[in-house]
Task: inverse folding
């Protein structure tokens, strides 16, 4: 893998909140029955993240949601209701990529596997992310090898 994949690993959700605060990205919780999380950028380039607080998400789900939305803010990958589906998918992939590189860096994933952590469930637990997100991370790195 390339050196560009080396990232400092975000291990705790509190680190994501600290990063958001440092970057001036507001994070608010409110009831969002149609969505678990969302991010937006205003006309001045300031970002805001909204997280659904109407359900009890696990710590790993919350971390995954916040990392993904922060990925939108850090990469500028935003879209609206009129954006074509193909462009929406690109924006979602960019946000996922940022979250993966920061929450499941390649070197840390290799270290975990060499240490005997092999199943997707075990890896998700080790990295503190959802199992679905762990699958995305594994798929991302497998695609990068091609």
Result:
């Amino acid at each position: 893998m390339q050196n560009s994949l080396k990232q400092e690993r975000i291990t705790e959700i509190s680190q994501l909140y600290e990063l958001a605060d440092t970057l001036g990205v507001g994070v608010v919780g409110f009831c969002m029955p149609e969505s678990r999380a969302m991010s937006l950028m205003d006309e001045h380039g300031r970002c805001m993240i909204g997280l659904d607080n109407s359900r009890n998400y696990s710590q790993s789900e919350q971390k995954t949601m916040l990392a993904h939305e922060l990925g939108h803010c850090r990469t500028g990958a935003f879209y609206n209701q009129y954006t074509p589906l193909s462009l929406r998918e690109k924006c979602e992939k960019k946000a996922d990529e940022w979250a993966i590189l920061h929450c499941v860096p390649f070197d840390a994933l290799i270290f975990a596997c060499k240490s005997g952590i092999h199943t997707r469930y075990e890896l998700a637990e080790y990295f503190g992310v959802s199992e679905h997100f762990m699958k995305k991370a594994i798929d991302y790195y497998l695609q990068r090898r091609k």
User: Anything to note?
Assistant: The chain is about 55% helix and 10% strand.
